[in-house]
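Consider the following assembly input.
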Amino acid sequence: MTQKFLPDLVSALREAGLRDGMTLSFHHHLRNGDFVANMVLEAAAKIGVKGLTIAMSSLFPIHKAMIPHIESGLIAALDTDYMSGPLAQAVSRGILEKPVVFRSHGGRPRAIGEGSLKIDIAIVAAPCVDRYGNINGTQGPSACGSLGYILPDVDHAQKVLAVTDFVSEAALTRVSIPHNRVDHVVVVDRIGDPAGIVSGSISLTRDPLALAIARNAQAVIRASGLLRNGFNYQTGAGGASLAASLFLREDMRRLGLKGGFLLGGITKYMVEMLEEGLFENIFDVQCFDLSSVHSMRDNPRHQEISADTYANPKQKSCCVDFLDAVLLGASEVDTGFNVNVLTDSNGMIIGGSGGHNDAAAGAKLTIIVAPLIRARLPIVVERCTTITTPGRTVDALVTERGVAVNPRRADLIDRLKEAKIPVCSIEELRETALRITGVPKAPARTGKVVGVVEYRDGTIVDKVYGV
Amino acid sequence: MKAFRTMLFMPGNNPGMLASADSLGADSVILDIEDAVAKSEKDAARILVRHSLTDLRPQGVMCVVRINGLETPFWRDDVAAAVAGRADVVLLPKCERPDDLREISACIDAASGGGDGIRLMALVESSRGIENVSAIAASGGRLAGMLLGAEDLTAEMGARRTPEGAEIAYARGRMLMACKACGIAAVDTPFPFVTDMEGLAKDAACAAQFGFSGKALISPHHVHAVKEAFMPTEAQIAWAARVMDTAKAAERDGKGAVSLDGMMIDLPIIKRAERILQMAE
Amino acid sequence: MTVGQIASAQAGTLESNDIFIRMTAAPDGKGGSIAVESIVMQQFGDDILQTIKDCLAAAGLDGVDIHANDRGALKCTIVARMEAVAARYKEARR
């Protein structure tokens, strides 16, 4: 047995064999409160290695601390499912020589399992560790709930290093990662800022347009015929997507239905539906607020799942395949129903697929909810600046000014007409928007490719150009 | 008539709100140049409202402009903007006498470009206005309806405003009857407790039960609940459809008096059935 | 409002979907300049500039400096704000 607990990150990284050109993986459950990635890279800088690849499931504004490490040559490449903030902007401006590899939350574990993304050292931001090295995410001062996104890394990495700020005297009874998968543990003062990890409560939007869109989206779900006992559901974290769960809840109460599972990123509103008995289970890859952390800790019907179980398309099955409906946001939708959630209309990186294209591929009904016009820009474009989710996996676009259904779904069009929901073509939606906004000029972009977009199955679906 | 069901106020100087006027589900929008606009911004709001109506006309909703009152130096310019924008309706606040409406109407007539189709609504929000509702309602001409403004009224009365609304029962009844007697729309006061959705549902149900044509709203979050309150129940719709079928059959067969479920189908019953079916569309 | 001897007026706000416009007499009394900032500069910068020019011509104004900060205003809003600022400017100049 190796010595499990080591005194500091430098010695732990040395012990794990850190060398030039290695791939270090991280996860984003501490979201914008994450101290671990920055801390580990600080230690790597002290050791003086170069040319690392950082494979982190998502990158947030707090990770702007990586910018100097890119400039110094410590970091040579990034591999992620989503990035926002100053680091994303720096990437858009061409700070990296190598294009960033953008994956989905299901594509990442697929790549890890297949070996196309080889991880040398997986770093677990561990809210709670016991003295044997067992880990969970639901205890301790930096509790974040699910650790789902790092579980595939732990299974396949050469070395696993846990960083924690809370060591439980008692052996853990709820274990996410057992001690036999953990090489080393380093105890630090704080692994994160609780205010940035989970919001005390995510309040639902009061934006009347977002609510109008959410109400329209729920009407489409109701008309689709999928809303029945055993209904499985996921929603994105955007304003209109989250708000739609309010209307879903009203419908389920009124119709006396009991759903199957709620999936994905979990909030208080989903926990309340579970507790009210409107759904049987929650399968949780990420908690967005404290209510969901506590629910996962206390309610056996609220289960943590790995990114593999959630969305890996090369497993024997994954949860997204069982979805009836999913509501997702968009930065742009083109007339082929392709969706962009990666760049804004100036081409600047503002996000990434996350679970977007996984859920879209799996669900029987994929609804994109978005305002038709955002600050004088039509949401419907001729061709997306960047494609993250292919149009063949998208069934409907719901806006405040109308619903467009993918012509591939003639059955859905019939059902909506039957329910007297007006349906238009996506070209008509674009015309409506253009009449109001005028015709925008396509933004200029540099020839430099700063990112490649890998679809969940591993095919490259688009490139991201610098701005 | 459906245009009066939900009438949503929106501030006349807020371009974002004006652009969403036809996306919030309301049957009418009231572009407000009065209370929602500071004195120093009246000119800019008036211009913005005019351009919104001409260049970006909200689709499928009735467009109402609330002008400033006759006691202000603003109302003539407001009327001119409403006429230039071809507003459907001009809403006069603090209306107290039939002469108030005549003055506005004359101003519309005089406006260049003519205000042929423009109608008027009277916002009655004072004790004197309530005492004069019969005369106001009977003033004819462009008058299409009346709207009760309970906030100013109860403040003047020294009454306490409550979600239950007992303090405005008399004003509601009096205005409603005056409107019905003259065949114009009677629109209920907005529900001022913005986040009390339960109170809103009860208040709107009460307005529908009384026979109001609709209700004004100060929050877009109120649109759906008020629409629901004014929506006939499925049983009512089914009943109305049977009444119409029976009446049509009687007419076809040349029968005079017919009955349904032991109830005589006469003209008032047919009118009620027609109204229910109209509201259910 | 007049600042010293220079006539100046403003209209609009910095709220989203609005545009804030300031109009000032050009220092030398002729020429005049137009400066536009916009969150949709790439897509609509030229369009906004042209709209402002058209509005100035319609108002019969020249020899003014324009500073516009656009928060995604639709064309009809830009036209309305220009009309308001032009009227206020003429008032201030009198």
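The first helix of chain A runs from residue 9 to 15. Ask yourself how this observation constrains the way the partners meet.
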